[in-house]
Amino acid sequence: MSGYIDPSAKTGVNCQLGKNVVVLEDVQLGDNVVIGHNVVIHPGTVIGEGTIIGDGAVIGKQPRPGKTSTVKVTEPLPPLEIGAGCNIGAGVILYAGSKIGANTMIADQAFVRERCEVGDFVVVGRGVTVENQTTIGHYTKIQTGAYITAYTTIEDHVFIAPCVVTTNDNFMGRTEERFKYRQGPTIRRGARVGANSILLPGIVVGREAYVAAGSVVTKDVPDCKLVMGVPARAVRDVPEREFAENQ
To answer: Phi and psi for 89 in degrees, rounded to 5?
Structure first.
């Protein structure tokens, strides 16, 4: 085995490490962790037992915002924590300051930024971007190519279809006033958002609501309503047989 393991790192029993793996200071690997080839695990990262890390992943890196970025990081963030039984795909990048729950899958080439909380049994699909300070509840599924903007809240049992886009800034980077209103969407428990939909800043998609594919959501969606169109308008109720609690 080639690579580097810092002497301060703690490795559980039956761990498997591929070629060219770099494990830095104070990393903790639980029992039966499998690390693919060419993986870098940054200082202090905690990886729960039975988790699998795919080839080329970068785990627990500290953010370094651009000089003109509105995101400010003045001191190192706490280490990344990954729960037990997770499946982290090839080329994934996970930042410090975030927590990933147990039995969660983060598919190939997905990115999860700093200060995020991802629940248990979550699926984050291939190429998904989850920006900073986002919360994702248990059993939620976010499909291929979705963009989850900073300051978004997604509750339990939510379904986000491929290529959904969320937004958080109605001023698109102009005027200082924008900082008072910057907020991603809130998507309540059991809601579903169809492919290629766009959610505007700060809107609330209600509990068990359904956003049809290709919709542009410009105002709050009531609980248990199906909305569609540009802009999205309520069409009918969502039948109770489709509620997450009845599956």
So the answer is: -75, 180
99 is written with which tokens?
């927590």
Locate the DSSP E strands across 62-107.
81-82, 87-88, 93-95, 99-100, 105-106
Distance between CA atoms of residues 90 and 127, nearest Å: 11
7: left (phi over 0), alpha (psi -120 to 50) or beta: alpha
Cβ contacts of residue 22 below 8 Å, gap of 6+? 3, 4, 39, 40, 41
Question: CA–CA separation, 108 vs 166, rounded Å?
Answer: 21
Give tens-digit pLDDT for 113-165: 999 999 999 999 999 999 999 999 999 999 999 999 999 999 999 999 999 99
User: Is the distance from CB of 239 to CB of 222 less than 8 angstroms?
Assistant: no
The listed CATH number (2.102.10.10, 2.30.130.10, 2.160.10.10, 3.30.40.10) that belongs to domain 1-63+77-129: 2.160.10.10
